[in-house]
Amino acid sequence: MYLNSRQLIMLWTMIYAVSSNSNLTAHLDVNSSSRVINQSSGAVDLRSLQQQLNEESLIRLSLVNQLYTLSSDMLTVKQRMMAIAVEGRQFEDKLKAMKKKFIALKNENRRMRDTQEQISVKVSNATDAGTSHASSGSQNEDSVVAFHAFTSKKLNFKTDTTVNVVYDKTSLNTHDVYNTKNGFFTAPSGGLYVFSWTSLVAEMSKFNAELLVNGERKGLAKCDHELGQQGFESCSNTVPVILKTGDLVNIRTVDSLSLLGIQWSSFKGWKVQ
Questions:
Q1: Is it the case that residue 25 has pLDDT exceeding 90?
Q2: pTM of this structure
Q3: HSE on the CB side for 48, CA within 13 Å?
Q4: In the chain, N or C: fewer CB atoms in 10 Å?
Q5: What is the pLDDT of residues 183-194, one digit of tens each?
Q6: What are the residues facing 164 on neighbouring strands?
């Protein structure tokens, strides 16, 4: 069967149309595939970026937590250091208070010891005076009051220690006013008294002493022969005092090494009026 010219034109027209549609469809399919691939690739990149951002956020959050913990630790350490400093100052204050209390207790103990010694002396003197009065008859306060005491042997002392000097023998001792056991004179009545003491020291020695009334210094005598020539050094001092009944008087070392005896060193006193 043979086609005429009109039919051939129509057939070619149909073939061209079909070919055109096929090329357009293919082109559209290719473009659609490219867009899908590009969209898939973009989605993958976006997820990767979002994951990196999440990881960085976690890292930053961890760093912030660590910084917060470190700041808290530093604040705790600072507070502890301040507390330790306060405790140190409080300890120093307590130590100073304890030192002051110790010194006060030491002084109080010394005062109580001196008071007890004076009381013991008064009791001893009262006992001795009562015995003497009973054996020798009654005495009155208007009678003569005087004593003269001396050392029967050499006395040695320590330079850094103060001690009461005991003159163990007497040549005169009315009413037993001087106690040869403890070295104290007790005033039997009030009035004006005079006291004197004489000291003899050898070479390279010294005897510096003071006169005390109820533990209070009333006179000093320096007898220093440490740097002197060969021989002896004799020193004395005389002090008038006003006493009340029962007052105590004695000689005490200040800075002494030795005192020679056998009546070369003596302590004496008498009531003037």
A1: no
A2: 0.49
A3: 6
A4: N
A5: 999 999 999 999
A6: 252
